[in-house]
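Worked example 4.2. Below are the chains of a multi-component assembly; read each line carefully before continuing.
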Amino acid sequence: MLPFAVGRRSFLGRSGLSLGSMALTSLLAGKGVAGSSAEAGVLRPLHHRPRVKRVIWLYMAGGMSHLDTFDHKPTLEKLNGQPMPDSVTKGKQIAQLQGSKLTVFAPQHPFKQYGQSGQKISTIFPQLGSQCADKMCLIRSLSTDAINHDPAHTFMNTGTMIAGRPAMGSWVLYGLGAEADNLPGFIVMVSTGKYGQKQPIAARQWHSGFLPGRVQGVELRGTGDPVLYVRNPPGVDMASQRGVVDAVEALNRRHQIRVDDPEIATRISQYELAFRMQSSVPGLMDLSDESKETLDMYGTRGGDGTFGANCLLARRLAERGVRFIQLYHRDWDHHGAIKEHVAGSAAEVDRGAAALLVDLQRRGMLEDTLVIFGSEFGRTPMAQGNGRDHHLAGFTMWLAGGGVKPGFSYGETDEFGYHAAVNKVSVHDLHATVLHLLGIDHERFTVKNQGLDSKLTGVEPARVVKEVLT
Amino acid sequence: MATMCLTNLVVMALGVLPPADDLPATVRFNRDIRPLLSDNCFFCHGPDGAQRKADLRLDTREGLFGKPGEDGVVVKGKPGDSDLVERLRETDPAKHMPPLKSGKKLNEREIRLIEKWVAQGASFEGHWSFLPVPVTEMPPAATSTQAIDALISQRLAVTGVAPAPRADRRVLLRRLSLDLTGLPPTAADVASFVADTRGDAWERQVDRLLASPRHAERLAMWWLDLVRYADSVGYHGDQQVSVAPYRQWVIEAFAANMAFDRFTVEQVAGDLLPSPTESQRVASGYNRLGMMSAEGGVQPREYLAKYIAERVRNVSGVWLGVTLGCAECHDHKYDPFTTKDFYRMEAFFADIKEVGLYSGDNWGPNMKVADSVQRAELKKLDDRIGNLEKQARQKLPSLRAEWSQAIIASRPLLIEKATSTGGSTLTVKGPGTVLASGKSPATDSHTLLTKPLEAETGTLRLEVIPADGLPLRGPGRAGNGNFVLTEVVVNRVSPQGGRQVVKIRSAAASQEQTSQGEKNPYGKWAIAATIDGDAKGKDWGWAILPDAGKGNAAEFTLAEKLPKGTVLEIILRQDHPNPQHTLGSYRLLAVDAAAKRGDLVSAPPPAEIDSLVRKEKRTAEENKKIEDHLLRATQAGNPAFKDLLEARAAREKLNGSLPTTLVTETVAPRMVRVLKRGNWMDETGEVVTPATPEILPALAKRGMQADRLDLARWLVSRENPLTPRVTVNRIWKLFFGSGLSRNLEDLGSQGDWPSHPVLLDTLARHFVDSGWDLRGLIRQLVTSDAYQRDSSHRPSREADPANNLLARQGRWRIDAEMVRDTTLSVSGILVEKVGGASVFPFQPAGYWAHLNFPSREWQQSTGQDLHRRSLYTHWQRQYLHPAMQAFDAPSREECAADRGRSNTPLQSLVLLNDPIQVEAARALAARVLGESKDKNEASRLQAMFSLVLQRGADATELSTLTGLLHRQKTTYQASPAEAEKLAGPGAVPGGETVADLAAWTTCARVLLNLHETITRE
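Applying the procedure described above to all two chains together yields the following structure tokens:
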């Protein structure tokens, strides 16, 4: 092995994208990498032994109320309807409740202890509670920097509120490379429910930012063509399409002899990958090889764009080597009628999420998969009518899978569920932890952009939350 | 390249010292040393005071060599005595620099470079791009085109790399056409250039293309990325916003080769120029192109902080090419910019009228913009209105008398006492005039006790009048200036204090709101609802939108005549459930019983006119004032002015149809503080006034305090070293594939030392001296020998893989817009129309499914707008057109100085399957079948090849395509239904079958998918 930091400046010349601690092998491989079937990552070897190979992120867009789901606060029950103590809220950032009277709002559903671990989870998650409590590692002390959806999503995905930085999935794919040679390495699915105001989700949330376009997230759609432009034109069958691709490649090769441009070799391999995607995507979407029992477990027959169907597709993608899979359920913005709505949204995701964990485990895949569950922020302990407002100071997420302590909980909010109080975890800490599980040291995984050694975890200090790791 | 570097590395790894001569003969601080220190040391020993360790700076003379009388870390001429070198060579990990945990490390060559620099006397230079652009070092006679070639040749000669020969004429014209216009040439263009034996054949092509409107469009694509032009607001709901006239302004400015300094000033501060023209105001829309939010729950101050910070990032990105944005939260790590510099730059933009939270369709100051046809039509109507007004003047004296009578007949009701049930403070501001202030209750009821009536009264008049201090000047207290008067009750008050209801027979108003009246039982916000005893519910009443900020009146005809001396109690109820729809400012009047009242209620005149009318004696001048008012405010329906009213209505209608564009309006600047760590809630930071970064040349201000116009002029002042270097560097990239300094975003310490520093400075100096002549600059670049070199020249590629020496041209995949435009152009379906509103060509259905507030679907354009150039395609920030995004078009949420050039499978899917690609292939096939006189397959294939690539196919290429064509013909002859699906219904040109057209369409698809087709060579 040759040393890492070798005259990068003279070496990479002026490639515009020079990598802080890029391994030599991939550097030297250069364009050759693109010529192989699956794209290699730039981190070869990884910084340390990875615990997981892939990530499945179940993203509850809109701001799931931690207080009605995973963070039980008896004090709120006791003080329901009474004014929120000034000492807790004074001088804090507040969204729609600006200037309103702040009153305490009790948890809207009972909690129960589930599993051997006795994790306290709201009864609106009966499947996750009864089947998965002992697989989950709850982190009840998250906090974020943004109180409105748009910047909070951007912060959660890219580590900054300013648009234009790469999403975590792009970072991971860039670092680790793809396993699949017939599907994109970073796939996003979005489902919608019936209970919240549907959250707008910007494509920015899976953009590759200043990283190469090939690591951008690709949306797998519930309706229409599953991947944009994946369907042959009308009147063109696969044989004819193959004929076109063959001719394109033949002419490209001919031209390459003339001009000797390495981009042409890459172009040819991309046509091959595109063609393979055209064949593999329909197979991916076709659930006829799934047993009835499996379909029942996820609560779907497929093709319905539900969260449950997306969970099943997520498992299929994971099996096919997709590196980073993100499932949005954009239904969690419960400003009003939260009792009914949070139960409704929970019911929309409970079965699918539980089925995914169980299914991954019985296929032996949970041990090298990291599942993340959570929102861009939480909701206030204060009432907003009969709902709750956005809340940034404390909320809950959970992890499950390889390298993560199962049936474990970490961190606490204060008795009102307002501030992360014990063992605080920032969004950057979460990012550092996820990268760590994938074998990446977040401090060393940097890309030069706008003169800075940019990294997912930003300029502020961030730490790997070692306490949740096995 | 790989082999060479590997050799070097192996040599180093084995510890064998390479010969000493691999270091430059003279080590230069800026070229050789600063990048090393910046990369490895500045983070802890650079400009950021908060981050600095050991109180040591390595970015200043003082830091390196010590304050006078003290030792520094560098002793000139003595590497052995220099701490800097010692620490780099240190073997004890505790003392070694950079520290192990930083992940930074200098290699042996780099350390030797530093040693040699110290040994040679350690000459120090300020960072190159911040130094003044030197007066050109070339002899005065040399044009800068010659300078380009001379300076490039100089370096080639030194390094011994031979320049590539001139490219062939076809490649040259293809390159030039794509670079200058974004479109390939036609085969005929190529043929005529190839045949042109004149000495200035190339210059003729250059001038032809520079004069093309397509050239202005091509430059606009470049500029719109920088200034983050988009058709949607970006945040949260990503609602649509109308700014297309700004884009048009950019295109027109490039078409006219507007000087770049003027181009700059008009965008940054067009609104502050003396009597700005319409076009300058449109240009000032630049400041309003940033993202905006209408997300409920937004704290306005937070978003005002976001908007203004983004402006600093954009201005510093577009013109200065530095990453000042880093200094929002901390002093810059690498460049001498402080947090205070950042906020002082913000202060230049503190005068821009805006709000943190937008709502509805109102995105702040905007103006209507007419095109030339509309402008002529407006002029015609204005002339007609002028003539009609002249005629109307003759009738005015009699109209004035009649109108004055009506006004005089209504006298202000003197008010004894005004009370509010909701807790508003009601102040009697003048006779009959009431202003509500203080607490703004959700609902309210005003009770007004009058003094005795001064005359017999049959009608009461209520005038709602605008007033300062109310939202949008009222007259209501709701945020939009509206109110809802839900019920009016009039009581007669007996001397003993008893109350007796006075019946109201009828009511009429000068205007009744019709918008949002769908659920209203009256069908509108009718005055009738105020006297119905709430028969249809107490929510309904009188409202006046869209007349916020304007006066209106209602008159209540009483069922009886009230004698002089009567005391009244008037109750105005405002019970509408939408909060704060209460009355803000109004006047009550009593109309003499004897006065005749028409059906029409006239809106209240301005206070000044009202009091003039009530004067007993008036001068001629005062009468004229009243007449002028009457002419302006001619009442609807007055038959004396029918033509005038129609003309005005026609003008209003035309005006209403004009597109709007966001513009900058200036207001008293708000206070700007340094926000510690960028935290908008922290109010303890220092208050700052506008100023440019201290490290850069001073700004000349016109007044006591510098403003945006001063900033704009400073950006393009002769003293500013950055703007010309940045601009020249980016223009260079458009024509050579990468900048002379590779990092287009950052010319600061972390940027790249230019490959040809003297060339960059010569061009920058010439650009300024030429009066910022952008077209002149471009002409110099494309007429140079360097521009015309072959790009596939193997010897120079082997000698210099990164092409730092510019021995050859670059080759690259063309930009997103050009990919689609090329497809449309070669297939003959491109619509070349300049400007106008954004268009909506084909986009896959459901692509906008995840947008909300409101949810919406792409409304596909029809006809010509399906085939316009791609720079006119609607630019949705959150969901950019997927085919454009696949080819690296940026979302334009922030300044984008340098697009990526990726090569991905999604690009292949777009070219293979996007319906527009297939449609173009069909058109291309039909074009060949229809146009080619020779029915021979080979000639047709050659014709198609020539349309797409402006060259003939060789035998191998021809045989590939012929084989495909034959197989496809067989396939489609066997399944005509499939053929029709691909080739579409309708006539097949050239007397061929549908199966033939389908097969030819397949061949066309192949050509449109070629790497060569989307490559600029």
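Take a moment to check your reading of the output against the notes. The first helix of chain B runs from residue 2 to 13. Residues 1-19 of chain B have pLDDT under 50 and may be disordered.
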